[in-house]
């Protein structure tokens, strides 16, 4: 019988889970090899997730790994963001100390948002245009873990992910995707039975299921045999069959319920076996002394963990009584001390929930009030980084709007400083709920300077108003991705303003500007109507920061959507307003916008000078967002002006100044600018490094699509059309929903050149027409002219003759396209020359004009192509000496750039004309007899050419090389184009004449 057996509720023996431990051990082994891993452990409440995690962490520490644990807090949705990550990092800080400080060196201010021990957080007011702070914080966390995991294995465990705040979920997802080559393993547990269809964790799990480095373990209930083993371990003796069967039937194999039933069956709990789950969970609590039950009820309402000093302050017990009550609760395995040793928590959250649910409404309010009053009387009772969120929760649960409203607003400010936009939004929505119920004197005591930053207040001494609150919600909702809610709130604000008619017009203009932005974000229009309303409202008003911000937004909209000249006056006014009101951030941003607008309007030198002036200022200003915008845009406009070498230097200088202070997407932007300018400079090999690095830094974004385009041009220019096609396909997929001409026009240009190179001239025409249909708004001439040149060249190369209608379309588009810079004027001459060639012209004069124009620009490969065409005309006219000189210059430029197709075309013409080519300067070119490598053929194309020279048909080539006849045909077409010959016979003859395959 069991009556005389002493029991313990927690099994001293770890039962089952061998397979799960093996999977966790395998993930640890992979992490040890430098392959970051993540494991999500799911299962119903009480199934043993925490026990499995504890056993694994013990084993991991035994191998030398450093492990830390953080638990999600059930009040996380009310404003305690990143709680488990902060706790885990605090654990690592306790273990590694100076090493963690070294790994965080230079970024302590930002990382202090997650780990306050690193120092003070960043400035309380943020640049309203800097919306990358959150991504920057995520990336710095990745880098911190990668540095810590360089020489040792780091294991982070996150418990109760089903309670995680949204910011924690998003940071974890970012870590899962972004950790590279580090000995890091992240394990997280969650209640599978709590994940209903609309639970926010469900999309997180669906997303992580697609990641190769994430494993998901689902814990099942115990079998009958495992329940029997668990009972034997708890009871110390083998249970009788009837008892084991009864416990298995009642618990249904849930390990935690087995523990509770073992206690009831033993008679240690006088109430016996209950008929309801709730009673089963409460049965041992009700067996405690009155003082112990009182303490348990207080702890249940305090959150996951309650500090001892806080308990002492509110329990209403003497110190000896409190210690006795805690000893009783701990001895009964109801409460357990925290790992830090300064507080207590329930051993299992199911019991805490049952105790909390058993509280009477008035009792719950009273306990929460005591918590809040104690913390306000002695703030040192809780951690400083948790204080605001916990006070907000306690006062709200105490049903005291007068105390809850300011507490919730303070917590929203803390969330904002930590870049936890979703939690800030939730708290502000709660403040909106409390607003009307809070007394007027409480609202009047609130000041915008303390709680608001979305809309710059004209008079900080005035009370925080309802519109200030709506402004904060608008921005927080937008930054957290809740654009629909942001639009609704902004619309509510404008309707309220129109209804009352007494509000400051600046405030009304600000809300209309927000509506404009959200209208565009939600694809409900271009937002100009809303901006026009804002513009009318601020017309004639005296200078202020709000006025400057609205005008800067209008100028920015015009820069993107309309002609540059229309926005110049508005941007200039924004600069004046910002300067007179002392708003340095807005002034600098408006000055950059002004410079870009001047460039777009045709005043390139003046616009670049404007941005250069800002660059000189921001070198010392050191705002990461301002630095990135200035250097990114300056390098872009320099490239558009044809000043590619200067653009490369600018992009590199910006990257050096920014270091790791900005988000990866910003670094990728500057790297892409560098790569594009290196391509323009004819430095194909050098361009590959920044473009590849940029590609690794960003995932599925429009910027990634742009990177794929430039990588496609690099592959095409170096003679790898197959890789170029892959890059183009990736770009087309990434840019399916993009409408930006700076991406779409180059993508069409790349596609047209690829199609023409493969003899698909109808496809090339379609790409040209699609590119022209995109339109050429202000600032896109740098992309439009290369498209027209590619289309005209394709028509000239078409052996079946040019399409007159296509030539007319090119001429019409060229007539509309401006020539704001020397490089665009050179392209215009190139288009004219190609159009003349397409119409059968052989006059060298158009090519001479284009050559002279490109000779003055930093475009060596365009110059080489023009010289090739001009040489062709001169040689046809019998002018061998000038033609040979041009071919020599063109060939040298092509070889130096690694432009193998161009070098092959030059060599082919030289061979047909019996013109010897001198050495290009690096030994890669041979006089008169180019090598097969110099012809720009890929390895596969060289194999095909050898068989063509042997007289093989496409089918025979396909059989020989184990490819399809269609693929063989494509290779043959590419070879004919690269050798600049028309037939297979000419290709074979050229191969034999040059002795390309001497063996």
Automatic annotation (TrEMBL):
This is AAA family ATPase. It comes from the Bacteria. SMART domains: HTH_LUXR. Keywords: ATP-binding, Nucleotide-binding. The lineage of its organism: Bacteria, Bacillati, Actinomycetota, Actinomycetes, Kitasatosporales. Gene3D superfamilies: P-loop containing nucleotide triphosphate hydrolases (3.40.50.300), Tetratricopeptide repeat domain (1.25.40.10), Winged helix-like DNA-binding domain superfamily/Winged helix DNA-binding domain (1.10.10.10). InterPro entries: AAA_16, P-loop_NTPase, Sig_transdc_resp-reg_C-effctor, TPR-like_helical_dom_sf, Tscrpt_reg_LuxR_C, WH-like_DNA-bd_sf. Residues 930-995 form the HTH luxR-type domain.
């Amino acid at each position: 019988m069991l009556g005389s057996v002493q029991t313990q509720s927690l099994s001293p023996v770890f039962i089952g889970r061998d397979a799960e431990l093996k999977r966790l051990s395998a993930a640890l082994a992979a992490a040890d090899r430098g392959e970051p891993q993540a494991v999500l452990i799911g299962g119903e409440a009480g199934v043993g997730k925490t026990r499995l995690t504890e056993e694994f962490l013990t084993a991991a520490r035994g191998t030398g790994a450093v492990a830390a644990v953080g638990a999600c807090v059930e009040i996380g949705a009310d404003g305690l963001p990143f709680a488990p990550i902060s706790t885990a990092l605090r654990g690592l800080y306790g273990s590694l100390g100076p090493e963690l400080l070294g790994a965080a060196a230079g970024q302590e201010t930002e990382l202090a948002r997650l780990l306050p021990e690193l120092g003070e957080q960043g400035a309380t007011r943020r640049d309203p245009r800097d919306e990358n702070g959150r991504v920057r914080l995520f990336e710095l966390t990745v880098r911190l873990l990668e540095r810590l995991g360089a020489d040792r294995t780091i294991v982070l465990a996150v418990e109760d992910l089903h309670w995680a705040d949204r910011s924690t979920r998003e940071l974890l997802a970012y870590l899962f995707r972004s950790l590279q080559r580090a000995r890091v393993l992240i394990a997280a547990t969650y209640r599978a039975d709590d994940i209903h269809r609309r639970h926010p964790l469900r999309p997180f799990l669906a997303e992580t299921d697609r990641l190769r480095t994430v494993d998901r373990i689902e814990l099942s209930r115990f079998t009958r045999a495992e329940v029997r083993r668990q009972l034997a371990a708890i009871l110390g003796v083998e249970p009788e069959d009837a008892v084991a069967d009864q416990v298995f039937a009642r618990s249904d194999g849930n390990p935690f319920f087995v523990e509770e039933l073992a206690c009831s069956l033993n008679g240690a709990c006088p109430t016996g076996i209950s008929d309801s789950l709730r009673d089963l969970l409460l049965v041992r609590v009700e067996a405690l002394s009155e003082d112990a039950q009182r303490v348990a009820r207080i702890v249940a309402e305090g959150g996951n963990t309650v500090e001892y000093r806080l308990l002492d302050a509110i329990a209403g017990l003497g110190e000896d009584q409190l210690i006795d009550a805690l000893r009783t609760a701990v001895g009964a395995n109801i409460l357990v001390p925290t790992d830090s040793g300064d507080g207590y928590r329930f051993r299992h959250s199911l019991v805490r929930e049952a105790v909390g649910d058993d509280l009477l409404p008035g009792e719950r309010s009273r306990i929460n009030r005591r918590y809040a009053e104690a913390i306000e009387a002695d703030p040192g009772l809780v951690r400083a980084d948790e204080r605001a969120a916990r006070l907000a929760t306690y006062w709200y649960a105490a049903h005291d709007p007068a105390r809850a409203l300011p507490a919730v607003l303070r917590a929203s400010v803390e969330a904002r400083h930590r870049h936890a936009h979703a939690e800030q939004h939730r708290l502000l929505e709660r403040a909106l709920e409390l607003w009307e119920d809070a007394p007027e004197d409480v609202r009047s005591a609130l000041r915008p300077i303390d709680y608001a930053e979305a809309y710059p207040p004209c008079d900080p001494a005035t009370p925080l108003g309802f519109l200030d609150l709506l402004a904060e919600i608008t921005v927080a909702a937008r930054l957290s991705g809740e654009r629909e809610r942001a639009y609704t709130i902004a619309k509510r604000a404008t309707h309220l303003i129109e209804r009352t008619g007494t509000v400051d017009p600046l405030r009304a203009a600000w809300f209309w500007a927000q509506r404009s932005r959200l209208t565009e974000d939600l694809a409900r229009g271009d937002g100009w109507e809303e901006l026009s309303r804002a513009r009318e409202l601020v017309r004639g008003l005296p200078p202020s920061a709000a006025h400057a911000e609205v005008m800067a937004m209008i100028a920015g909209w015009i820069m993107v959507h309309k002609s540059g000249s229309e926005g110049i006056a508005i941007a200039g006014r924004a600069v004046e307003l910002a300067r007179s009101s002392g708003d340095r951030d807005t002034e600098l941003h408006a000055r950059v916008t002004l410079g870009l607008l001047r460039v777009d309007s045709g005043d390139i030198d003046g616009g670049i000078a404007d941005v250069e002036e800002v660059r000189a200022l921001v070198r010392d200003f050191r705002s990461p967002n301002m630095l990135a915008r200035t250097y990114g845009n300056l390098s872009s406009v320099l490239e558009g002006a044809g000043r590619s070498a200067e653009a490369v230097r600018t992009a590199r200088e910006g990257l050096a100044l920014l270091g790791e202070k900005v988000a990866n997407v910003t670094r990728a932007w500057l790297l892409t600018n560098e790569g594009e300018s290196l391509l323009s400079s004819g430095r194909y090999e050098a361009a590959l490094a920044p473009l590849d690095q940029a590609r690794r830094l960003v995932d599925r974004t429009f910027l990634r699509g742009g990177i794929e385009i430039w990588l496609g041009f690099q592959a095409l220019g170096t003679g790898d059309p197959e890789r170029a096609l892959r890059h183009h396909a990736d770009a087309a997929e990434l840019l399916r929903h993009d409408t930006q001409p700076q991406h779409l026009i180059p993508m069409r240009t790349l596609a047209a050149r690829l199609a023409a190179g493969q003899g698909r001239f109808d496809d090339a025409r379609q790409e040209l027409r699609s590119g022209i249909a995109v339109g050429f708004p202000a600032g896109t001439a740098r992309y439009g002219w290369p498209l027209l040149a590619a289309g005209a060249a394709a028509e000239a190369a078409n052996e079946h003759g040019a399409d007159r209608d296509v030539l007319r379309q090119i001429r019409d588009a060229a007539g509309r396209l401006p020539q704001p810079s020397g490089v665009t004027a050179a392209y215009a001459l190139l288009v004219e020359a190609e159009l003349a060639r397409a119409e059968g012209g052989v006059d060298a004069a158009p090519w001479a004009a284009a050559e002279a124009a490109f000779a003055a620009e930093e475009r060596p490969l365009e110059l080489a192509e023009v010289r090739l065409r001009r040489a062709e005309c001169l040689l046809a006219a019998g002018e061998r000496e000038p033609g040979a000189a041009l071919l020599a210059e063109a060939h040298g430029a092509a070889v130096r750039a690694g432009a193998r197709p161009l070098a092959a075309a030059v060599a082919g013409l030289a061979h047909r004309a019996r013109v010897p080519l001198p050495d290009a300067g690096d030994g890669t070119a041979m006089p008169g007899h180019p090598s097969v490598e110099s012809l720009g053929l890929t390895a596969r194309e060289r194999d095909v050419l050898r068989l063509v020279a042997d007289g093989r048909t496409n089918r025979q080539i396909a059989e020989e090389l184990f490819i399809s006849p269609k693929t063989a045909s494509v290779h043959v077409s590419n070879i004919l184009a690269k050798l600049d010959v028309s037939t297979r016979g000419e290709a074979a003859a050229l191969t034999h004449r040059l002795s390309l395959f001497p063996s």
